[in-house]
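Appendix B. Worked example

We walk through a single record from start to finish. Start with the input: the chain for Dynactin subunit 4, Caerostris extrusa, length 299.
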Amino acid sequence: MEYYRLLAQKEKLERERKKINQRYSYLHISDKYGMSATVVRKLAGLPPTLSKGEPEASEQLTLPEATSDVEPLPESYLTQPLNLSSVCTLKQRLFQPQFQPANTSELHPQNKYMHIKRSQRCKVCEHNLSKPEYNPSSIKFKIQLAAFYHIPELRIKNISKLYLEKTCLVEMVLINPTPHLAHITFEPIEEPSDDLSTVKLPPGELVLAPRDDTAEFDDINDNQSFKDDPNIVTFRKANKLGFMFSLVPTSKDVVVSFKMKHDFINMVVTLPGEQPREPQVVWLTHSLKIRLGTVVGEM
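Next comes the structure step. The output line below is what the pipeline stores for this chain.
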């Protein structure tokens, strides 16, 4: 136990030493104002006290030796039934060498240091991707980076059996995360490669209802205000919509690629006293590449 205590003390001193910034430019202040030695050493990044006279503690781990004196087992080991779920494993005991609990009721929470995000920048536009501040609303950089709350989500729901050179169907789900109507269209890519399967995208425009957290408690029909093609749209529920499209696999690995175009309404925030501005509608295009699996054979 003494070895572990000394080892923990050494690691703590190393962590504190890394936190101290060395400031050699402040050493001349002591000559002018007569500062104490403790303050000068602190400004210089040195320990506040000298430790030359202190004896260095030994960190040699003594090897265990066999002994004939063994403590007798408690009577509960012989009289009470064994419950393995209440007994600590060897890994749990070694994680806490100071206590080495035998039962799970004696476990203590481990002291871990909090990890924060690093400050990263985009290699193209030099925008901050993540900042280490605890409160993101307090930073000056406030570009909307959370695409999860602004871009429609596309999920795979069902895939029929894939046969080579045969028409297959794929059902996908669109989810609108914004509080506005979303208009989505799909377009083919300009230069398809040979390893991509031939895909037939749904024509026209798909309209998604805005996100409403109270919609699941309403009994209103979701299809009452939308005119959907039953050959394309499979279901509609609140801000979710399912649709079908067909494809023809041309290789063993079935990969499709297309473009998704949708509108984005940017709500401009105005300061008190300013005239309200009209929301900006921007059309965004995303190139998608989806791997649907492998073919099961030739039909």
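Two observations about the output. The first helix runs from residue 2 to 19. Residues 138-144 have pLDDT under 50 and may be disordered.
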